[in-house]
Records
---
Amino acid sequence: MITPPERAARRVFASLTLRQQDVVRQFLTQGLNMHDAILASNALGTGELRTPRDALREERCARDKRQAAEHEAAHLCVATAVGLDAKYATICPDGSGECGFSKGGTPIQLAATIMAPEIWINKFRRDAFPNGAKGLKGDHRALAIYDVFVMRKAMDLCIDVLRDRRAVILAAADRIEKFGFYVP
C-alpha cells in the first residue's frame, strides 16, 4: 500500500523536468526513498541540480576540511600543553593549514607538537578518518632532524597530552572549521 507521503512525492516527481527526474532516479538507485531523493537532488531548489557524485564530492570536501581543522587543533593543543607559546591555528579553503607557536622549546616539546596531528588522527580519530591522516609532508620534514630518543620521548608525551585533552581538541577544531582560524 502506498502511503500518502509517498503518493505526494510521486506527484512531485511527475511534475519535474526529464533532467530532474533523471537525477532523482540516480539517488533512488543509491537506496534513497522518493522524498529523500527529490530533496537530495535539489530538484525543488533554486540552485543547480545535485547528483550523487556531487554529494560524494561535498562529503569528501567536508571531511577533508574537518581533518585539516583537527590537524591544526592537535598542533595547537599540544603546543599549549607542553608549554610552548601557541599563537594561532588556521586552515585555508584548499585544505592547507598552519599553526603558529614559539620555536623556543626543547626538542622533545617541539617534536611532540609537530607529531600531534598524525597521532591524533591515526590513534584517537581512526573512526572519523578511516583512511588515516593526510597532509603530513611538512610535519615529516620537520621531524626528520630529531633522533630516536627524542622521537620516543616526544611520542609518549604527545599521546598523554592528546588522551587527556580530547574535548579541548574537538572544541578547537569546531571553531577552526567554522571560522577558518582559532586564537587561544
---
Amino acid sequence: MIQSLKIQNLILISEAEIPFGPGLNILTGETGAGKSAVLAAIALICGERADSQLIRQGSERAVVEAVCGEKIIRRELYRSGKSRCFIDDEQVSLTELRQSMGSLVEQIDQKSSRALAEPEEQRKMLDRFAGLSERAELLAQALSTERAQEDELRVLLEKAPTQARELRFLRADLEAIEEVNWVPGEEVALEEELGRLVHSKELAEKLGQVVGALEEPTLKRLTSTLEQCCRFDPKLKSAAEILKSCSLELTEVSSDLASYLSRLDADPGRLQVVEARLHVIESLRRRLGPLKKDDLTLQIAHWESLEGEIERLRTTVEKKKQENQLLAEALFEERTKAAPLFSKQVLSELHSLNLPHAQFQILVQLNTITYLFSANPGHTPIPLQECASGGELSRVLLAVKTILSEKELARCLVFDEIDSNVGGHTATILGEKLQRLSQKAQVICITHFVQVARFAASHFLVAKKEAVTSVTKLDDPLKELEYERMLGIEKKTATLHNDAG
C-alpha cells in the first residue's frame, strides 16, 4: 500500500504530497492537467528507468518519495542523467528497488490490456489462478538447462569431423617441445646467464677492484688502529665494535666475490652453448607461439575424449528431455483441470461488466495457453488477440484481476484509465468492480467518468494553473463540484479549479 507520495519538480508538478488511503483512490482532472506526472512518480518508485526529461523545466533535480508500508522509497533524478534510488535512506541499485517493490505495486494500463492478448501472459494468469507459478518456473529453468545442454552437444558434434586433424597438429607440437627438452621458464634463466657471459671481461675487471679494496690486512689494520684510539677516549669503543663487525662481514663478501671471479672464466665455451640453446627455443616459439606444454597436454586429452564426451552428453540430454516431458505433462494436466473453473469465473465477471453475451474459454495445449473470446451471440470464440476491442480487453483484464486479487501479492493496483472505450452504464459497473477490488487491495485509478469517481474512498483533483500542476484531496462539497465539471456543467467549476490550481 502506498500511504503517501511526495513529488518535487516532476513534469509540471513543483511540489505535491498525496495522502493515498486504503480502498479506492480516484484521480480526476482535465486532459493535460498533469495526471501523467502522478503515474510517472509511481512508476519511478517501482523501479522504472529514469529520464531527465521528466524533470520540471528550470529545475536541476526531481525527487519522488513514497511511504509504502514500513518502507520509505526515494528516487532522485538529475539533469545530468544521473539517478539514485533509496530504501529507508540506504542507496540501492535499480534492480534491488524493482525486486523490493515488485510484489507491492502493480501498474495496469492500456499496455497491460494489450499484453493480456499475448499467450505468455495468458499462461501466467492461469498458472497464478491454479497456484502453478512456481512449478511453471521450475519447468522453465529445466527447459533452459536442456537447451544449454543441447547447445553444448551441438558444439561437440561440430568439432567431431576435425578431431583427427586437431590431434595430429597438437601431438606434433608437443613432440617438438619434448624433442628439445624445453623446461618452462628456462629461457629466462638463460637470458640472465647470457648477460653475465657477454659482460664477463668488464665484470672481472670491476670485481677485481672491489676485492682489492677489501683486502683482509687492510681491514684488520683499520680495526686495530681504531681500537688503539679507544685507549685515549672510551667513547670510541662503540664505533670500534661496529667497525670490527663490519670488517668480518666485508671479509666474507671479499671471499664470495673472489670465488665468483674464479668461476667466471671457468668454461670459455659456455657463451656459445647458451646462445645456441636460446636460438633453438626462439625458433620453437616462432613456430608454436607461447610455449605451454601443460596446455597442449590438456587439449590433446580433450580431443582424445571427444567421442566419449559426446556419448555422455547425448545420454544427459535424453534423460533431461524425458524428465522435462514428464514435468510438462504433469503441468498440462493441472492446467487442464484449472482452466474450466477459471473460465467460468472470468465469464461470470464479464457478464457483470455489461458483456451479457460474452463467451470465454481457455484452450490448454502442452506448450501454450490460448484465451478464446467472443462478445457477440452466435459467434464462435476465437483467440482474444484477434477479436477483442480496446474496451473489451480492458474489461477482460479487470475481470481477471478481480479473480486473481486474492491470489496475487500486490498490495496496490494502479489503473490508468481502465474505463477507456466504454459507455456510461458500463462505467458504473466498472466503478462497482473497482470498489470490490479495493476491498482486497489498495486501488489507485485515473478516470474521466463520474460513475467511477463516485465510488472513491479518497478523491484527488489534479489541476493545472499557469503551467503548474497541483494535486488536492477533495471533501464532499468539492467532489460535487468536480462531478459537475466531469459532466460538463460549467457552473461553479471554475472556482474549484482556481482554488485547486
---
Amino acid sequence: MAKINLDALIPREDFEVDSGAGAQNLADRLKVSELVKGQGFFYSSLRKPDFQRETSDWDKNKIASFVKSFIEGDLIPSIILWQAGQYTFVIDGAHRLSALIAWVNDDYGDGFISQAFFNHDVDNEQKKVAEQTKRHVNKEVGSYISHIDAIKNPDQANPELLSSANKLGFLSLQLQWVTGSAEKAESSFFTINQKATPISDTEISLLKARKKPYAMASRAILRSGSGHKYWKLFDPDMQDTVEKLAKEINDWLFTPEIKTPIKTLDLPLAGKGYSSRTLPLIFDLVKLANDVSEKEVSEDITGQETINYLKNTNKIIRRFTTTHPSSLGLHPAVYFYSEKGRYQPTAFMAWIEMIKDFEKNNYFNKFIDNREAIESSLLSFKYVTNQVTIKFGSGLKGYKQLKEVYSRIIDLVIEKKSKDEIGAELKHSFPYINIDYLGEQPKTPNFNQNTKSEVFISSALENASKCTICHGYIHINSISIDHIKRKQDGGIGMKDNGQITHPYCNTTYKN
C-alpha cells in the first residue's frame, strides 16, 4: 500500500543550535490543539533533526488507526523530545506527531503546509495518495474540523461524533525529555530509532553524511530541488544551481509517471518517484556516478562540490534516456523493468557501471553496431536479472554480479553466438542461473496486475518504434528527428527526408 509523505509537517533544523541557558519547566503532556498551525507556540517551535529520515513510512490505514487510537484514549508511547534554544526537537515519535498534525491541519501531503514546503510543486502521485488518505481518515474517525464543529453546534451534531469530540479536551500525548548536549541527543536518536524501526544501512550512511556533497545532492534530486534545503548555507547562486540541476535530474529519472497495470511503454527511467525505495536508489546512483566508495569525501562548505556531484550524476543520466546529444536512449522496458513490469534497481545500477566502462574504453560505437542483437538477447534472457538479484541481493549488493552477466551476453552477441549458444554459455559461466526458468506463474484463472502488465509489454514491444540507424528501441524521452540526407549535403526539412533516431546515433555515430 502507498506510503504517505508527511515530511513537510515538522520542519528540519540543524542540531548545532544555541542551547541557551538550559531547559526549564518542561511540560509532560501535549494537547492536540497545540498542533494546529498558527494557534500555539508549541507547533511553531517543533523541529526534526536534520539527519532524521523522511517521515513517509505510514500508509493511510496506519494513520487512521493511530488517530482513532488517540481519540479513543488508547495507550500511546511517549513522544521523546529535546529542547535547544528556541526549538523543540523530536528524538522519537515523528510519525506519531506528524499523523496528528496531518489530522488537525487537514494536510496529508498536499495541504497548505506541504505545498509551501515543496514550493507548490507537489507531484501528482503524492496528491493522489494524500486525497485517498484524507477520505479514509474522514470515513474512519471524522475530520478534526468536524469534531470542532460538533462542539460548537452540539444540537446539530451526530451523537457519536459529539461524544468523540468532547473527549478531545481531555486527551493528550505524554512527553519525555532528553537532557544534555547535542551529542547526547543525537546518540539517543540513533539508539532509540535502531531499536524501534531499524534504519537501513543506506539510510544510516545518508543521515551521517548529511553535510557531504553526495548526501546533499541525493536529497536535492529526491524532491526536485524543493523540500528541506540542506544546502541553505550556500551562496544564493550556488543554491539556485543545486536546485536547477536537481530538478533536471529528477525529471529525467521519474517522468512520465508510472501507473499499474502497465498499459504504455512510456515508462520512467527510475521507476516510481514516490516510494520507500526512491531515496536509496538516488543515493546509490549519486555514489556510483561519483565513485564515492573509492575516495574520502569531506563536508561541503561552499556548495561547489555538491554541484560537481550533481553534474557528474547528470552526465551519467544523460547517457540513458534523455534528448541530450550523448543519449543512447536505453529503453526502460528493455533494460530496467522485468517482463512483468516491475522496476529493477539492480539492473539500473549495473548499467551505470556499464556506461562508465563504455566511456573508459570508447565502446559506444561497438555497442551501437550490435545494439539490435544485444537488445533481442536481453529480452530473451529477462529472467536472468531476477535470478542474479535473488542470489546476491538488490541494488548495490548484486549490481556487480549482474554487470558481469550483461557484459558476457554482449560479448557473446558480438561473437555472433546464437541464442541457444548464449544460453548454454550463461549456464556454464554462472551455474546458479536457470535459463529455462519462466518466473513465478499465477495459480488462479484471473489475470493479476503483473500478468496484465506482462501481456501488454510483450505485445507492445513487438510493434514498438525503433531507431532507423541502430534498430534499437526508441523511448518517448529520447526521440531525435534526423535528416536522412544531411543538411550539408542539400537535405531539406520535409517529412520524406526525416527519420526517428536516438540522439547519439544522430549526432555522433552517424557522423
---
Amino acid sequence: MKTRVIMPAIGIVLLTAGCKKELELDYRDIEPVLVVEANLGEGGATVVLTQTTPMDEPMNRTRLTDAVVTISGADGVDEQLVAGADGIYSAAIVPTSGVSYSLAVERPGGFRAVSECVMQHRATIAEAGFSWISMPYDEVAVLSVYVNDPPERGDAYWLRVFRNGEVYAWQVADDRFALDGRLELSMMTARRNPTDPDDEDNLDDGDVLTISVAAIPPHVYDYLTRLSAHAVAGPTTFTGDFCLGYFLASTPSETSVTFSR
C-alpha cells in the first residue's frame, strides 16, 4: 500500500508566494581542459584536440596541433599521427577486431594522457525509417534505427545522426532492451506543423539523414552517458594528466534516409 501526501493548492500558493529571488551564479575561473575526440576504425585513425571554453565566452572550437599523438597496439602497431591543414591528426592504421590499442597524447609542459580501447565488432544496421506519433501539442516524426544485436554479449551502441552532412543528434544505449536479437534506437525529430522556424530540430522535406551506429565498450558508454546528461564528474576515459573526451576503436555502420512529411 502506497502512502500519498496531498497538499491543497492554496497551500502551494502560500508557500511559493514571496519566495521569488534573483540568483547570482559565481562561476570559478579555471584553466581550459584538453578535450580529445579519437577514433580508430577500418578507415584509419583520426584525433581532434580542442579545449573547454569558459561559461561566459563563445564556444571555441579551435583545433590544437602542438601535441605528439601516438597509437600503439598489441598487434605491433606503433604509429605517430600527423596533424593536417584542418588540424586533425590522422594515420593509416588498419586495426584488428579484438585487439587492444593505446592512444597517448603529449603536450608541452610535460602533459601526458593515455587511453586504451579494444577494437569492437562492427555493428549491423537492420533497418531505419520514420514513423509519426501523436503528442498533445502535435504529431512528431520518430526516427527508429534497428541494430542486429548478438544475444550472448552485453553490448552498447553509439547512434550518431547527420543532417545533410552536419551533426544533428546522437544518443547511446545498451542492449538490455534488445528483443529477439534486435535493438531499437529511436529519437524524436521534427514536428508535423512546426511553429518555430528557428527550431534546430525542425526537418525540411528532402533533408538527408546519415545514420551511423558504432559498438562501444563500457567505459566509453559511461562517459557518453554522463556527457548526454551534461555531467563530466566521475572517472574519465584517460589515465595520467586530466583531460576530457574518449578514444574509440570501432568501425561504424552507416545508412541514410530522406525525410518527407
